[in-house]
Amino acid sequence: MSTAALDYIETIYNLTVEGDTVVGARLAEKFGVTPASVSEMLQRLQRDGFLTTDRAHGPLLTAKGTAEAEANLRRHRLAERFLFEVLKMDWIAAHEEAHALQHAMTPAIEARMAAVLGNPPTCPHGNPIPGNAPHTLEFLRNHQALRLSAAPVDIPFSVLCISEVVEDETALLRYVGEKGIRPGISILVRDHGPDGNGPLTVEVAGKSVALGVAVADKVWVYRQDTSPATGAAPAAAFSQPVSGN
After folding, report:
1. What's this model's pTM, rounded to 2 decimal places?
2. To 5 degrees, how large is the angle CA 75–CA 77–CA 83?
3. Which domains occur in the chain, in start order?
4. Smallest Cα–Cα separation from 30: which of 149, 164, 216?
């Protein structure tokens, strides 16, 4: 498959994990292309058996498409972990460089990388690594996770992961990193802003931070008084700087 085709099925997979409907306009924004280009790619992927189209829910990955998405996301997120933990890149550089590394990764390298890393369940941004984290498509549901923008006030939460369904992932990772938001960190919503429309006032590890709703939508959290089916990586695992290149 072409790199562009892989990017499409990975994005559709991630949208499915987050419970979002896949719409052409969202894909056009994500990839910076025209709606016509999106339609052409979706038709090609449907023709090749990677997805079907449902009138109510939009494009849906087939078993073949899901397997392809998970295989590629596994390589990408393992690469991120390797670059972050072993080569000591920050989480932005690790994310950017992993795109090239995942496409050059042979099965032997993948297996060795997983072994060296100890088969981690998540990437540095908290997203599940297929094959290591069980039931990847149910990851958020199994953790009873919700978007930070929907979290009730004055209830302790922990950050589970940062969404990968964004138009500029580098900008998001830089921004939340500067705010101290990373997987495993404690976070508490103090106020949802005027009329509940933001900006949110949150406490991140005891520090007051203002966040717009659009950013808070991309941060997934779970209550500290619940026991996730598969735990998020502890904050100590992300102790190196995460805010820049």
Report:
1. 0.87
2. 100
3. 3-61 (1.10.10.10), 141-238 (2.30.30.90)
4. 164
DSSP code per residue over 158-194: EEEEE-S-SS-HHHHHHHHHHTT--TT-EEEEEE--G
Q: What is the separation of C-alpha 5 from the centre of its chain, rounded to a whole number of angstroms?
A: 19
Mean pLDDT along residues 122-132: 94
Confidence check: pLDDT of 155 > 60? yes
Separation between Cα atoms, residue 206 and residue 172, nearest integer Å: 22
- CA neighbor of 44 nearest in space, from 2, 10, 73, 103: 2
**CA–CA distance from 219 to each of 52, 85, 119, 167, 183 (Å)?**
29, 22, 24, 15, 9
Q: Is the pLDDT of residue 240 over 70?
A: no
Say which amino acid occupies 199: P
For 156-166, the pLDDT digits (tens) are 999 999 998 88
Closest CA to 157 of 165, 166, 149: 149
What is the percent of the chain with per-residue pLDDT over 90, rounded to a whole number?
71
CA angle 154, 158, 82 (to 5 degrees): 160
Where is 58: in which H helix or E strand? Answer: strand 58-61
